[in-house]
Design brief:
By secondary structure, this protein is mainly beta. The chain is 14% helix and 37% strand. It is built from three helices and eight strands. The strands form two sheets. A six-stranded antiparallel beta barrel has the order 1-4-5-8-7-6. Strands 2-3 form a two-stranded antiparallel sheet. The longest helix has 7 residues.
């Protein structure tokens, strides 16, 4: 049985370019270089260029969150499966994927809660 609802045309029409940076491999902790003895950080994953619909939360959603969400946070609608704690770059702003609301079983997309990443965090 296919999706009960097909939102693919809407998602395609309103999507903008985004980048997704997957979280680091938990087994790669970094290492010391055998020749120099210097610490070598684990290799970050390459950004994935794709499209998605990034929208702000409504004032009602912000109010109902009890302070958990801020006006800087966003929602992402995409057909991709994105791991939690991935970084999404949209319009020059970085967001961390904090929660997934999977609608893929009947509507063909996933909704993600994105928290704005401070400019001071790496």
């Amino acid at each position: 049985m296919g999706n009960m609802f097909d939102f693919s045309d809407l998602i395609e029409e309103y999507s903008l370019p985004i980048q997704i940076i997957l979280p680091a491999d938990p087994t790669d902790k970094g290492h010391y270089d055998e020749d120099t003895g210097e610490w070598v950080q684990p290799n970050p994953s390459e950004p994935i260029d794709t499209n998605g619909v990034v929208i702000p939360f409504s004032s009602n959603e912000l109010y109902q969150s009890g302070g958990r969400l801020s006006s800087s946070d966003r929602q992402l609608i995409t057909t991709m499966d994105i791991p939690i704690k991935s970084i999404v770059v949209s319009d020059g702003h970085k967001y961390s994927v904090e929660q997934e609301l999977p609608y893929s079983a009947y509507a063909g997309f996933n909704l993600y809660e994105l928290k704005w990443v401070s400019a001071f965090e790496q």
